[in-house]
Amino acid sequence: MKFNIRLFKLDTNSIFKSFFSVFIFNLISAFLGFMLNIILARYFDVETYGNISYFIASFLVLYTIFEFGFGNTLVILKSKYENNLKNYVNDTINTHFLIFSLILLIFTELIIQLFGEQLKLQIYESRILITSSFIFALYNYLISIYQADGKWMRYNYFNLLSNFLKFFIFIIVIFLYSNIFDINFTFKLFTRTYLVYTLILFLVTLYFIYPHIHFKGIKLHFPLYKTLIPLGITNLIVILAMRVDNFIILHKLDNYQLGIYSAANSFALFFPIITGSLMKVLLRESANQGINYLKKIIDIQKKYFIHLIIFIIIIIFTSKYLIIFFFGSKYLYSIPIFQVLSIVYIGGVFFTPLESYFFSNHQTLIMLIRILQLLIIIIFGFLLIDLFGLIGMAIAIVLSRIIAWFYFTIKSKKVIFKLSIK
Questions:
Q1: Domain carrying residue 281
Q2: What angle do CA 413, 417, 418 make, to 5 degrees?
Q3: What is the distance between the alpha carbons of residues 225 and 119, in angstroms, rounded to a whole number?
Q4: If you average pLDDT over residues 299-309, what whole number do you get?
């Protein structure tokens, strides 16, 4: 079977339209998630909110393990081949994802059973955590099929469905227990509700997308694992880099401190909705582009750099009022942490397009950079948290991001220079 790679011209209008649609839906989705997070932070005490943050951090890590980059791999590989081979690539990846994820599910179950106590997970909590994470991984892969086909409106609807369902399910359950049954909505009830939410989300998504799901044999005629392995490891490293701070804080400090940090972190994470939108669109586009894509991105960065700095300064100076308004005075200690974290989360908007080029075309390089970032967070996190407390953890995050951005900037200029002299 002969596989030919397609070549495209950079269509900036198409990219902007796709980005704008994804961004708007991500904005609505993030707003619902953000509001739910505020409700939980205000409803529970700071320590219980810390427990919830730890559960969600563990959930995101496990779901990333189960999905293992199959969604991004599908987007990249399906975009690179000719139309007559698209279905074959899609269906074969479906088969391998199902087998791969089931193997990982069994392996993860064994790991949790053996080391659940060291990970500070109760038996009921670990079972709910594994099940809900696996279900969410299936959902996330399903909607990546629309992403791979460039069907952005369908992708947007199902992407929004996630936080839409989560918001209204939790609001209804909290209302029923607090006002109708007169029972406190405990952390245990939170985990059970989370499982119900992921199950409903998956079933609704499967109902609509099932006619488009097909499977082929496991024999491969294209380099699936050459793309998948670096991407899968990279995705895992990325989510660990984003959530390992939770594990370090809980290990070095306590649930109360984790709750304080999580309020600042969750607020700062509102900004990556833009970076997430950019990456989802540009991942597909950059998989088909050459040096022109990289040049265009660098030109855009130069044009809007000053706007980025001004926006960061505004957020830092208004952070006190924002934290108090949304989370309440019990999270006052979150203010300086938010100020530090907002620098890199807002800065991510600026550097994500540059990263998308290397993410699509140099997966092994991205993997190595992400490993370096994770090591920086772990090493400096443990060192600085003893010296400066929670601020030290935030500084470790900033260092890891700045070093990676500096490398990508230098590397991209070298790539352009080498090709320009040929």
A1: 12-420
A2: 120
A3: 30
A4: 72
221 close to 1: Cβ distance less than 8 angstroms: yes
In single-letter form, the type of residue at position 234 comes to T
Average pLDDT over residues 303-316: 82
pLDDT score of 24: 75
> For residue 71, is it within any domain?
yes
CA 385 – CA 322 distance, rounded (Å): 25
Q: Assign 8 a pLDDT band (cuts: 50, 70, 90).
A: very low
Closest CA to 276 of 249, 239, 306, 301: 239
**Tell me, what's the pLDDT at 213?**
84
For position 223, what pLDDT does the model report? 75
Q: Is residue 362 part of a domain?
A: yes
Query: Do the beta carbons of residue 345 and residue 271 sit within 8 Å?
Result: yes
Q: Which of 129, 127, 75, 140 is nearest to 101 (CA)?
A: 140
Determine the longest span between alpha carbons in the chain, in angstroms. 74
Residue whose structure tokens are 């100076």 = 317
How far is Cα 241 from Cα 129, in angstroms, rounded to an integer? 20
Which tokens sit at 322?
């924002």
Instruction: Give the number of domains in the chain.
Output: 1
Q: Hunting for tokens 């060192």 — which residue is that?
A: 383
Q: What's the predicted TM-score (pTM) here?
A: 0.79
H helix count then E strand count, the chain:
14, 0
For 12, 102, 176, 233, 414, the CA distances from 365, given in Å and listed in that order, are 26, 28, 50, 12, 15
Nearest alpha-carbon partner for 195 in 125, 112, 259: 125
In a 3-state reduction of DSSP, which class is residue 88? helix
Query: How big, in percent rounded to 5, are the helix, strand and coil portions of the chain?
Result: 85, 0, 15
Does any domain span residue 1? no
